[in-house]
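User: Design a sequence. Structure:
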């Protein structure tokens, strides 16, 4: 494989893409939404002191009329946060504010919040209609107005004709719609959805996701979906946050969260496997070394080592007709080809040229996404990958000192992630990303 030296752009420490929101490790008071919404302000929760905090100073601002997705791996605290919002648990510290009203200590029945649980929690001895109106009857709120709301909700969720059917006679999708109807007839300001699509097949997931999105837009209610499935959340949400180890590690719009992760954890959680360690050359401070290429930066590198990300869709199998000059060319071997409907996912190997460890693997693996269905991609064949240098993203950096000499106009789309050198600059700008 040919050795390739390229120019890798960087931006000044502490500079981030427009719209990026990074969670701060120290308690801060988030801005209240301009016209209502939900604010989680420095909320912490501990169940067993020996195991530490389940939630640690969580801060979230959820705008009115939004479909919000809270993601994270198992055990990260997302279900606990959902229970705190619902009033099924109470925080040890911090506040929960809804439409400007502090509901931190309010009991569940006093909150305009309803929950659709993962197992739907329908009453097996009640038919669909009585399941739906159960909450209204408990509140003694059955009247002409609420019955009109029930009729509209039944129609909106396509439950007409099923009113006298019992839950065990329904499909999983129908049971879910009944659970949604039961929550929505109470006209909550916030609807909590606990893994709403975890029990559904792919076809039904697509249908339910579309129904949820249309329903939320029609009702103008805050929907908060708790899930570990990034694809489910990106299908419907207007805003997303990732929870890890009891803390919010990044919050942003789905497109930016996917394309501009602020850490290696976020990148890998969102399915971006192309994360590599880059080291500053010990002899030339303007050069950094990746396992499969060296990079001439043209100016002193402000860190000693960093994690960099190459998005799978940034690696191209054919060069753009108008951008051949300046592209990086890398020879790669196809190890696997996976056909994913609208695109093909290739797993390729790049020969490692640099390593300071005798036990280092001889190859680095990269994921490549291509819409090219015109040919068969055969494992074992050699292909050329093309990469625009400015699409290499720096995620996390360590060591070094701030450097004040940077390109005047860094290419659009390149973001420098948080590191030791930029902690002070980021704090001055309003916060730093959590490690």
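Assistant: Done.
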């Amino acid at each position: 494989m040919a050795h390739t030296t390229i120019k890798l752009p960087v931006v000044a420490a502490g500079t981030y893409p427009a719209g990026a929101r990074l969670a701060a490790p120290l308690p801060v008071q988030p801005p209240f939404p301009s016209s209502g919404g939900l604010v989680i302000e420095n909320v912490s929760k501990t169940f067993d002191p020996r195991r530490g905090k389940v939630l640690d100073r969580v801060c979230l601002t959820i705008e009115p009329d939004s479909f919000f997705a809270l993601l994270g791996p198992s055990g990260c605290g997302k279900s606990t946060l959902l229970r705190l919002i619902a009033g099924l648990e109470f925080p040890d510290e911090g506040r929960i504010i809804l439409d400007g009203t502090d509901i931190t200590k309010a009991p569940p029945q006093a909150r305009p919040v309803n929950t659709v649980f993962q197992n739907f929690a329908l009453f097996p001895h009640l038919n669909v209609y009585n399941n739906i109106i159960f909450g209204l009857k408990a509140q003694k709120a059955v009247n002409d107005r609420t019955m009109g709301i029930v009729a509209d909700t039944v129609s909106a969720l396509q439950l007409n004709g099923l009113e006298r059917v019992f839950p065990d006679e329904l499909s999983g999708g129908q049971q879910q719609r009944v659970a949604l109807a039961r929550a929505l007839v109470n006209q909550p300001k916030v609807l909590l959805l606990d893994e709403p699509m975890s029990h559904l097949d792919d076809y039904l997931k697509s249908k339910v996701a579309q129904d949820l999105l249309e329903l939320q837009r029609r009702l103008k209610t805050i929907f908060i979906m708790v899930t570990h499935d990034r694809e489910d959340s990106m299908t419907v949400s207007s805003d997303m946050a990732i929870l890890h180890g009891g803390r919010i590690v990044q919050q942003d719009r789905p497109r930016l969260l996917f394309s501009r992760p602020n850490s290696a954890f976020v990148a890998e959680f969102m399915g971006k496997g192309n994360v590599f360690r880059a080291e500053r050359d010990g002899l030339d401070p303007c050069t950094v070394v990746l396992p499969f290429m060296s990079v001439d930066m043209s100016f002193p590198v402000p860190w000693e080592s960093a994690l960099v990300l190459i998005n799978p869709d940034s690696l191209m199998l054919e060069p753009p007709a108008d951008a051949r000059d300046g592209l990086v060319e890398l020879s790669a071997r196809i190890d696997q080809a996976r056909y994913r409907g609208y695109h093909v996912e290739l797993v390729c190997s790049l020969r490692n040229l640099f390593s300071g460890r005798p036990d280092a693997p001889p190859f680095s693996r990269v994921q490549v996404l291509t819409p090219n269905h015109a040919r068969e991609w055969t494992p074992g064949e050699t292909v050329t990958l093309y990469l625009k240098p400015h699409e290499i993203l720096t995620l996390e950096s360590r060591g070094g000192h701030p450097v004040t000499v940077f390109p005047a106009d860094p290419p659009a789309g390149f973001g420098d992630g948080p590191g030791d050198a930029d902690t002070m600059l980021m704090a001055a700008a309003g916060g730093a990303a959590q490690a």
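Residues 5-14+266-407 form a domain with the OB fold (Dihydrolipoamide Acetyltransferase, E2P) fold (CATH 2.40.50.140). The first helix runs from residue 78 to 86.
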